[in-house]
Amino acid sequence: MALSEIVKAYDVRGLVDGQLTEEVVRALGAAFADEVGTDAPIAIGHDMRPSSPALAAAAADGAMARGADVVSLGLCSTDGSYFASGSLDAPAMMFTASHNPAAYNGIKFSRAGARGVSLDTGLAAIRDRAQHYLDHGIPEASRRGSRSERDILADYAAHLRSLVDLSRIRPLKVVVDAANGMGGLTVPAVLGDAAGLGALPIEVVPMYFELDGTFPNHEANPLDPKNLVDLQAAVLEHGADLGLAFDGDADRCFVIDERGGAVSPSAVAAIVAEREIARVRAEGEEDVVVIHNLITSRVVPEVVAAAGATPVRTRVGHSLIKDRMAETGAVFGGEHSAHYYFRDFWSADNGMLAAMHVLATLGAHAEPMSELAARYSPYAASGEINSTVADVPAAYTRIVEAFAGRGDVDELDGLTITAPDGAWWFSVRPSNTEPLLRLNAEAETEADMVAIRDEVLALIRA
């Protein structure tokens, strides 16, 4: 098998058995051990998918064959694996396919300190070495590594509680849809008392907290509006202050207001950015930086600048954001896809931590979530719209020609065109893995956004 089929830009993702077999994973575990060395143990965690425990064990076997010691984390969220990597200063492997259906699984790699691994920073070398091991076998090191177990949940929960104090907020009722994913493990520990921490003034109404990697209720992908329907109804039914929806590995969190409306991830990013900027400026930090990718709402850099910090615009991509966080010393980073990155969490992303910031803000004010979100959502946005395109360069040419002289062109990541007066902008980016173009448009009014969206879509699909 050619590993290039499953090794993506930032992780490994493939069909269980057909692509991601124990043999393949054993080779990847061995190759990862070679890449990161054996000075520190490798932490290996997994989600609740039926295939995950066996795949994690196979990876551990491969790593130990190459002389690495392994710390098995057992069930954990992806941000739990980042916590282990950061707190233990150890490389990590996390077995999850995030929001993908049950037939899939995958691996997210971290170097020590929760630093990301992409094709440009080691994943290509891991892929090529693993391919060699698949073809020729894994040579045993002179010393086989050992294996130990470690439960990190309580320490993880305590660490998050230390970063955001929720003990003095007004009482809140929160419906949480874990989608049968890892949020069913982490939410009771962080927002409840399952990890032995003190009770918070938060009443959690649980939805689908049973860990079940077959996803019997709905896909664990809150980016798709159909997977929010149950949560929206439950928020209204229970008269809750807000709802939270986690994806399968619980590293992304989406927010629903008390009326059942979806809160834009950009609004969440702006809320969190403002809090983090205020915190570090109060501690005496002057040159504060916040990262945002190029398709977050314009409100994010505006809020950052108004709070006295510097917004830094980046390309889209998990490892790219982490790299820019490290380069700039940014206190926070936000993506349109509801990935939120925190300097105090080893610059890794953590949906639970973002949710806690939202709860802290809401709990400190009397206004409802819908009014709070509206203050950070002044523009009309299209959301991301995907189109299958046979000839991407030709589509680009049509767009550039149609908008010649009508806006400023930026090619940082795909194609972004912005009106001279800033009244609208749109971004068109090609997919890394599929013949797709992704459109995001935003404008000061709904009518202008619809007009720009429809004009660009017509050009893309011509």
Give an overview in words.
This protein has 462 residues and is an alpha/beta fold. The protein folds into four domains: 3-152, Alpha-D-Glucose-1,6-Bisphosphate, Chain A, domain 3; 171-263, Alpha-D-Glucose-1,6-Bisphosphate, Chain A, domain 3 (3-Layer(aba) Sandwich); 265-375, Alpha-D-Glucose-1,6-Bisphosphate, subunit A, domain 3 (Alpha-D-Glucose-1,6-Bisphosphate, Chain A, domain 3); 380-460, 2-Layer Sandwich (TATA-Binding Protein). The protein is 36% helix and 22% strand. It has 14 helices and 23 strands. The chain has helices at 22-36, 52-65, 78-88, 123-136, 153-163, 183-190, 229-238, 265-282, 299-306, 318-328, 351-363, 369-375, 392-402, 446-460, and strands at 12-15, 42-46, 70-75, 92-95, 104-111, 115-116, 147-149, 172-177, 202-207, 242-246, 253-256, 262-263, 289-293, 310-314, 332-334, 340-342, 348-349, 380-381, 385-388, 408-410, 415-418, 424-430, 436-443. The strands form four sheets. Strands 1, 2, 3, 4, 5, 6 and 7 form a seven-stranded mixed sheet that branches. Strands 18, 19, 20, 21, 22 and 23 form a six-stranded antiparallel sheet that branches. A five-stranded mixed sheet has the order 9-8-10-11-12, sandwiched between helices. The chain is globular, with a radius of gyration of 22 Å. It starts with 11 loop residues before the first strand and ends with a helix. The relative contact order is 0.10. Residues 6-121, 155-260, 267-378 form the Alpha-D-phosphohexomutase alpha/beta/alpha domain. GO terms for molecular function: intramolecular phosphotransferase activity; metal ion binding. It comes from Agrococcus pavilionensis RW1. Belongs to the phosphohexose mutase family. Keywords: Isomerase, Magnesium, Metal-binding, Phosphoprotein.
